[in-house]
Amino acid sequence: MEPSTPSVLMRQRAIVKNRELAKQAREAEAEAMRRRAGATDGRGVFTAAPIDDSDSELSSGAMRMLIYSHSLPPWVDGVSTRFKSHLKLLKEEGHKVTVVTIEDQLDPQVRSSVDHVVHVDSTCLYWYPAKRFPDLTLRNLKRIWDACVRSRAQVMHCTMCPSLPLFFMCARALNIPLMVSIHTDSVTLLEKCGQPWPIVRLCGALEPLGTWFADATYTVSPSYSAILLQRGIRCLDLTWGGYANPAVFHPGRASSGDWRHKLSFGHPDDFILITAGRVSPEKNVEFLVELVRRFRSQGHRVWLAVIGDGPAAADFAPLHGSEDAGIWCIPGFLSQVELAEVYASVDVVASASTFETFGYTALEAMQCGTPFLGPRAQGFRDTVAHGKGGYLFDARDMTSAAHYLELMLQERHELFPPRQVLDSIKDFTAANCVRRTVQAYRLSAEQRRRATAKYGCAPALEEGEAAAAGGAGSGRGLVRRACMQCVRTLPALLMVFFIGLNWCLLHAPLLACWAAKQLARARRTAGATWDRSMRLTNLTRNRVLVGTQVIK
Fold first, then answer.
1. Which pLDDT band, with edges at 50, 70 and 90, does 50 fall under?
2. How far apart are CA 83 and CA 88, in angstroms?
3. Which of 47, 129, 197, 393 has the highest local Cβ count within 10 Å?
4. Each residue of 147-171: b (16+ CB within 10 Å) or e?
């Protein structure tokens, strides 16, 4: 058939017309979604329409973010320190941040760095009672939902925790890109705390599941990213890194305070070694205690100061002032300024922990010009340049640790001058940290857009040709939009299962303890009731029991 026949021309016109109609329909749908994103239902209640992702705002300029961290000041740990500085840097760059937190007494500096603060109820993890997490309740779900809609967040950033399903349901239903950051090696933590192996295995299985439903997974160091990959968790190629505030941590702090005199009990010329941070079983502080005891038994004047607090602090407090042990330990945390003064005053800052996902303690010490001694494990490998900023010994190897400590004891000033130590961490800056993290936010949004495009409406060309061929282009578009809603909704419904599983992890042991107490109470009550009924029966028979004698 010739190309100029009327049937072919009519079909070509139909294809062009359907292409134009499909394009207009898609533009109208996008405009409607943008209007619904900021609309209310007439009662002042925000609607549940998907929130608009503006390409221009996501690709550059300020962003609207919703951030949840399980640790924020006044809680003291590395995660808390990281997010405190991160929120401050985001504000300086002009980003709008809403924070969801479990801390009722939130640090004033953190509160001043964000636009809105949303508090949620929390509960302790039975298997690790020292830490609290958001409770898995409908009230918390509603608070998070309202925070997402009111902030019109363009990206959601949550730390990995048992309450992640609450945030995922809101992110999926409202079409907000979700990035999960992993800071704590929970599997190793539970193992070191001696928890039952089923709980450790369950935690190891839930972490990959939690990240599979997120748009992107982010972590703090390349070493920990490699460990997570072995567990089935693929992180972004970017890692957060870290920095120590040079306005607080610097060598000039050594002139402030009389810390050498205090930490050595009046022997400021002796060699002083300190470890700082949370004092808990996984930090392996006893390794350093034994290391110092070995050196003191050989006649070396070495002191170890344990600075911090935690579940294991009471085990080392009795050693305070002991001449044999050479330990200074008064449980309690120091302020950042005091900690910087200590770092700058002592000879070496040390750690024996193989649990650190990022070496914040090492970074702060080296920012003060003091070398670091720690194991060649996890985050310390990414932070400490061996031979430049300090020494890394073989993990849990007393001989290796003693060898490097002896080198520092003999030639510390020749091996590690302050300028060399500072040069070894010159790339760990605040600008690099915030730049990488904001880039990770944009990568998360980009991955969500790709997923939406994959399961959303078909391109105009395909719809037009389909309509010309069979007249069913609009029907196929409706099917695809329905499928897109299912893709958004079904995973959120699937999270109900994980909420139940995590609820058991959080509450089942507590529920079992409560049931046991109630059963014991019921038994005591039943026994008392039986005793009263028997005494009443005896009284009605005009009998009084005295010892083993019956008196009528």
1. very low
2. 8
3. 393
4. bbbebbbbbbbbbbbbbbbbbbbbb
- Which residue in 167, 11, 25 sits closest to 475, CA to CA? 25
Amino acid 91: pLDDT: 94
CA distance 181 to 498: 19
DSSP summary character for residue 254: G
**pLDDT score of 244:** 93
Q: How confident is the model at residue 503 (pLDDT cuts 50, 70, 90)?
A: low
Question: Comparing C-alpha atoms, which of 164, 153, 171, 182 is closest to residue 82?
Answer: 182
**Cα–Cα distance for residue pair 33/39, rounded to 1 Å:** 10
346: DSSP letter: S
Q: Name residue 118's amino acid.
A: V
**460, 465, 467, 470: CA torsion to nearest 10:** -150
Q: Quick check: 463 pLDDT over 80?
A: no
Compute the distance between CA of residue 288 and CA of residue 351 in angstroms, rounded to an integer: 7
pTM: 0.73
Q: Report percent pLDDT > 90 for the chain.
A: 50
Least confident of 27-31, 298-302, 355-359, 403-407: 27-31
Matching residue, tokens 């409706």: 478
3 state SS of 116: strand
54 and 333 Cβ atoms separated by less than 8 Å? no
